Amino acid sequence: MEYKEFLNQITYSLKAAILDSNISLNELSKRTGIKKSRLILLLNGKDEIYINDIFSISRVLGLITNFDLNDNHIISEEEKTYWDFRNYEKLINDLKLKSENCDSKDKEYYLSKIKIFQKNDKSYNMLRFFLGNRIEHLMSSVELSISELSDYLNVTAYYLVGVLNGEENYPCSLLFKIISILGNSCSVTFENNNEIHLLEYKA
Fold first, then answer.
1. pLDDT one-digit tens code per residue, 62-113
2. Do 128 and 169 meet the contact criterion of CB atoms below 8 Å apart?
3. Which domains does the chain have, with CATH numbers?
4. Are the CB atoms for 81 and 38 separated by under 8 Å?
């Protein structure tokens, strides 16, 4: 698959998801924080699509983004927890309550979880982390090191570590290059998130 084909597949999937939701571009722009003019460019393959762009649109539409890296990945219950943004306030309040009624060791754990949810709520770092984890597993399967992959990509190893750890919002073109180097294919689809109704965070 060429990158243009990969990009067309992403934009087609995004357009279909937006049409199914009946949301206007004005409303989508308002709720994602992505300017309408840029949304139009993104949906027509005229601007670079970043991972966070996809996550932002998925969040508004109540969808989970499924990156198919040909690695037989099944979204875990833990990962689904981080996709259910509608339930974040409830999750964080539950964790705060737990932190107030436990010993110091557990308190530190619950407070760290609160920080993780709050960070993901703003920057999608945990969702990027889960994707990075899958990439690392693929790297391991072909025995490719971070330094070797960074050389192939012409980026610093420091930057690549940030990508794999979920700390960097990177373009989909980089994801395509990584997966191509690892000898796998990549596609993006969306699945409904409406069935996720978590009542509390379970450690």
1. 999 999 999 999 888 889 999 999 899 999 999 999 998 888 888 889 999 9
2. yes
3. 1-64 (1.10.260.40), 76-202 (1.10.260.40)
4. no
Contact 35, 4 (CB under 8 A): no
CA distance 181 to 4: 16
Q: What is the pTM of this model?
A: 0.89
E strand segments, the chain: 63-68, 187-192
Number of H helices, E strands in the chain: 11, 2
How crowded is residue 186: how many other Cβ atoms within 10 Å of its Cβ? 20
For residue 48, the 8-state DSSP code is: P
Of the candidates 155, 132, 136, 154, the residue with the CA atom closest to the CA atom of residue 145: 136
Of 37, 152, 27, 133, the closest CA to residue 79 belongs to 133
**Alpha carbons 167 and 2: distance in angstroms, whole number:** 27
Cβ 198 vs Cβ 79: under 8 Å = no
Q: Which amino acid is at 147?
A: S
Token pair 């993901």 is found at: 120
Structure tokens at 30: 């308002």
Between CA 112 and CA 90 the distance in angstroms is 16
* Alpha carbon 6 to its chain's center: 17
* Cα–Cα distance for residue pair 11/1, rounded to 1 Å: 15
